[in-house]
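In line with agreed milestones, work has continued on tokenised descriptions of protein folds. One protein thus recorded appears below exactly as we store it:

>
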Amino acid sequence: MILFKECLKNDIVPFIIEDDLKMFYYRGLHEWNNESGYLMDTCLTAQDGFKVYLDYFRIPYPTE
């Protein structure tokens, strides 16, 4: 919830790590010191999934 709130506060599209991405998220956390790209890719994938919901409900969101 903190991450979700911080995303909204900073005009970043929030994301939710659902079951299909959970193991990738854990791997990203575990490997952060060696390879930060794992976690970044997982979070960006989850963010893309959240954008689908926003598009469906026609909710505008910040674009990069």
Notes: The mean pLDDT is 95. The chain has three helices and no strands. The two ends are 23 Å apart (CA to CA). Helices lie at 2-9, 19-30, 37-56.
